[in-house]
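Can you make up a protein sequence with its backbone structure tokens?

===
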Amino acid sequence: MRIRERERTPGSLREGALARLPVTGADWSRRILRVPPGHDVSVSFTTAQSSTRHTATLERRGYRVVGVQPFGTAGSLDVADFVVSRWLLEAHPAWWRALVAHADRAFNLSHGPVHLAFEAVLRIHRAPLR
């Protein structure tokens, strides 16, 4: 299934959510549900080690891994940030609840202060789709 055109636009980040999930162990990515067909969810990591360890599994599950965040964006925490569109939130609320169950924080991206606080993280999530 093709990703909706409107989800490809940078503006869609302002209408979705960001979930920050602690990376907990070697099998962490196997516990994350697959992306519902037809939707795009981007993921960034705070450490290169986690990115290397979990990218292949997440990509097989339908996620688009966009890379490692700039130094210092999450302090010393080993986390993955998932950016989810408003369309996915509305179409699959049970999927969103299951993802957020793994999160230590979730943010509504329609709030301006969240964009300011996470600008360095969101910048790499705005990369064009491959």
Notes: Residues 1-11 have pLDDT under 50 and may be disordered. The CA atoms of residues 45 and 80 lie 4 Å apart.
